[in-house]
Known about the structure:
Blueprint: H1 17-24, E1 29-30, E2 32-37, E3 43-48, E4 52-55, E5 60-66, H2 72-77, E6 80-85, H3 91-98, E7 110-112, E8 118-120, E9 125-137, E10 140-152, E11 159-162, E12 165-168
Antiparallel strand pairs: 1-11, 2-3, 2-6, 4-5, 5-10, 6-9, 7-8, 9-10, 11-12
Keywords: Oxidoreductase
Family: Belongs to the non-flavoprotein flavin reductase family.
Protein name: Flavin reductase like domain protein
Amino acid sequence: MFSTVTRSLAQAPDFSSTQFRTALGMFATGxxxxxxxxxxxELVGLTANSFNSVSLTPPLVLWSLSQAASSMxxxxxxxxxxxxxxxxxxxxxxxxxASRSGDRFADLAFTNGRxxxxxxxxxxxxxxxxxxxxxxxxxxxxxxGEVEYCSYRTGASPLLYHSxxxxxxxxx
Length: 172
């Protein structure tokens, strides 16, 4: 028989943050670029692999952002953002939007979504989201977006990330 222990607090971790990050890296993810516009119209965007579906009805997705991110104010205050799932040939864009320097949008082919957020050309899918809710948890904020519009390219190969490296799909 299993015994259940009721605790009011989680136990302190018995691993380092490096071990935790390495273990998290074992989960293969897709790669996204989340984009928005500030109220002044300035473009903001960043690479994120913390994207996930939440609900079909209503259509909800989530992603998370470090509380220390320079773009935090834009995403907290903005009413809309777009999540662009990158294609296998967009690794350079993933690296560019993960960098803290340079103009991320320089020479980038995109269209403006219905809510004003940039939709990156060549992405395998995009989700135009109303900024529905935010939850502060640990050192990140979890953003839940209500999807107002979505699009995808049938047959396009996504960019994948696993254990610190980029991959593309290979059907089994």
